[in-house]
Structures are given as C-alpha cells and as structure tokens.
Design brief:
single chain; 245 residues; alpha/beta; 8-stranded mixed sheet; 8 helices; 37% helix; globular; disordered N terminus; disordered C terminus; 4Fe-4S
Amino acid sequence: MGRNRHLNQKKGGNLAQVQHVVLILSGKGGVGKSTLTTELALALRHSGKKVGILDVDLCGPSIPRMLSVGKPEVHQCDLGWVPVYTDAQKSLALMSIGFLLEDPDEAVVWRGPKKTALIGQFVSDVAWGELDVLLVDTPPGTSDEHLAVLENLKKQHKVDGAILITTPQAVSTGDVRREITFCKKTGLRILGIVENMSGFVCPHCSVSTPICMDTHTPSVLVANRSPVSFRLASCALFRWTQSSV
C-alpha cells in the first residue's frame, strides 16, 4: 500500500496529494500579503486542515519570522526537500528561501533566470505529502517570480485561484488593478479581494477609526465584480476554503 502511494506520488509529482492551491497576490508591497497568508493558514489549521505555505518572495522572505520558526535545517528525502513543520502533528508545512540562507540579513542579489530556477525547484522538488491547501505567498508585482510559479504549478496541478490584498489608498488600489489585469491575462481566477489596514480599533473603547478617510477599494470591486472582505477574521475566503476542502 505504501509502495503504491509512493509510485503514484512520483507519477503525479510532489503536488499529487495537494487538494487546493491558492496564490496570495498584490501589486503593492507592504499591504499584508504575508500576514494574510499566515492568518489564513492558522485559521485553516485550527479547523482541522493540513496546510502548506510556499514562500516565493525570494528577496524578502517573511514567513519564517511570521511563524517564529527560526532557521532549521532543510533535509532531503527520496522525493526531494522535506518542508519545515511548525508542529509535531505536521499540520503546517513551510518552505522558504529564508531557511536556506546562512545569514538572515544576507541580501539575495539574483537576476531573473536564477530566481526562476529556484522557484521551479520549490514547486517540483518539495515533498509536501498530503495537504488540504497549499498557500503561495508572493512578492509584489507581476514579473518573473509570478510567471515562474504559475507556469510551474500548472505543469503539475490545477491552481484554484488568487486572493488579492490591498489597502485603502489610491496608490495601493492602482497597483491592485494591474494585478487584476495580470490575473485576467494568465487565466487566474480571482477568489476575492481583502482590504487590509481599513481602520484602527481602539484597545480601550473598541471604536474603529478609519485610517484613510476615503477608501478606493469599492471602485476596484465594481469594475471587476470581485468579493471583498474588510476584516481578515470574517473573510469570505475563509468560508470558501473551509467549505471546499
């Protein structure tokens, strides 16, 4: 039985036992992609799902710090790299370039082809095993890393779609519009848009105060008919993933 599963996994690649793949995107940096990825992964794990996070932000890997993993050694097995697990039950698996750097403050000064090659290895050579959801934390933009991860994922697995992150400012929603165009051009389904940093909740009186007086997110939604959540905790995408896996 174990031998047959091993052969089936080799035949279907290391994503053969992954049920769903979701990308976390935004054209803007600093809007909370890694935060959303972490919150979503923890919420799914809390609901009893097995979750993986693939961090393809090669120049600014945040996932190891977000989950307080430190710098564990990445081991190899017959199927490739073994992901780093955050718990003994192996319910949350991680892979990031942050685990491969000798110095966490070391800058990754790479040209496009070298980035593309490592992302290809991350997609094909990490032995994820059985996962309900694989979340892919991406860097800002619509360039080499995004094309590389999409192309490599589609060779092995259906990509369920993308969650787009924005903040209320016009400068952020403008970049998200370009990310929406990227999704349309690459045939990537938009599962929804999350507006982060919508307001500040006072720890004393619990009153929510908008950080920006005017939000520009609704104009993006009207143009693209995308669902939106203004609170991460009540995000419709949590309901989508929990009902789909």
